[in-house]
Design goal:
Helix content is 41%, strand content 17%. With 173 residues, the chain is of the alpha/beta class. The protein has one domain: 3-Layer(aba) Sandwich (Rossmann fold), CATH 3.40.50.720. A six-stranded parallel sheet has the order 3-2-1-4-5-6, with helices on both faces. Strand 5, helix 4 and strand 6 form a beta-alpha-beta unit. It starts with 5 loop residues before the first strand and ends with a strand. 38% of the residues are buried. The mean pLDDT is 86. The structure holds NADP nicotinamide-adenine-dinucleotide phosphate. The site of NADP nicotinamide-adenine-dinucleotide phosphate has 24 residues, from helix 1, strand 2 and helix 3. The site of NADP nicotinamide-adenine-dinucleotide phosphate (NAP) has 24 residues, from helix 1, strand 2 and helix 3.
C-alpha cells in the first residue's frame, strides 16, 4: 500500500492552513487545498481549488475531483475559518451569517463529502478546527463566534461520522 497520503486541507492561501499544507507536502504527501483567493503554494503534489467552503456545489465538485484523480481521501483538515471580535450588540447580521456559513456549514459540507469517500474504504481521519475561546468562554469575543464553534463541536461529536471514520477530532487553537 502506498505511504503517500491524500490530504485535503481547507483554507490554504495563508496562515495555519498554508503551514499545514507545506508540512504535508514536505512529508511527501499529496495536498488538495482550497480558498477563495488564488493559491500561494506551488508544488508538484499540490492541487488548489478556488472556492468558498460554504458553496455546496463547489465542495462536492472538489471532493469528487480528488477521488477521481487519487482514488481516496485519507485525511481532511477543516481549517478554513473566520472570526468576529466585536461585541454581540455591535455584530451585524451579515457577519453572523458569514461565521455560520464558513465555520459551521463549510465544515459540515467537507465532513459529509469526505466521509462518503472514507466510508467506501472504511478508513480516514477528519480534524475540525475550533478555538480555545469557546470552552474558556472568553467574553470579549462575539457570542456569534461562540455559537458557531459550539455548533461545530456538537456536529463533530455526531455518531453519524463513526460510520466512516473515527469521529472528527477537534483541534482547539
Ligand atoms: N490563529 C489563531 O490564533 C487562531 C485561534 C483560534 C482558532 N483559530 C482557527 O484556526 C483556523 C486557521 O486560523 P488562521 O489564523 O490560520 O486564519 P487565517 O490566517 O485568517 O486563514 C484562514 C484561511 O481560511 C480561508 N478561508 C476563510 N474563509 C473561507 C471561505 N469561506 N472559503 C474558503 N476558504 C476560506 C482563507 O483564505 P481566503 O480568504 O483566500 O478564502 C485562509 O486561507 C481557523 O479556523 C481559525 O478560526 C485560529
Amino acid at each position: 500500500m502506498s505511504k503517500t497520503r491524500i490530504v485535503v486541507v481547507t483554507g490554504t492561501s495563508r496562515g495555519i492552513g498554508r503551514g499545514l499544507a507545506a508540512y504535508f507536502l514536505k512529508q511527501g504527501d499529496v495536498v488538495c487545498g482550497c480558498s477563495r483567493k488564488p493559491a500561494t503554494l506551488r508544488h508538484k503534489n499540490y492541487r488548489h481549488s478556488l472556492l468558498d467552503v460554504a458553496d455546496e456545489k463547489a465542495v462536492v465538485a472538489m471532493i469528487r475531483g480528488v477521488v477521481a484523480e487519487y482514488g481516496r481521501v485519507d485525511v481532511l483538515l477543516n481549517n478554513a475559518g473566520i472570526a468576529a471580535m466585536n461585541h454581540a450588540l455591535l455584530t451585524p447580521g451579515s457577519v453572523a451569517r458569514a461565521i455560520f456559513a464558513t465555520n459551521f456549514h463549510g465544515t459540515f459540507l467537507f465532513c459529509r463529502e469526505a466521509a462518503k469517500a472514507m466510508l467506501r474504504r472504511k478508513t480516514g481521519r477528519i480534524v475540525n478546527f475550533a478555538t480555545v475561546a469557546t470552552p474558556l468562554l472568553v467574553f470579549w469575543i462575539s457570542n456569534v463566534l461562540f455559537a458557531g464553534l459550539a455548533a461545530l463541536g456538537m456536529m463533530s461529536k455526531s455518531p453519524v461520522w463513526l460510520l466512516s471514520s473515527p469521529a472528527p477530532e477537534r483541534v482547539i487553537l
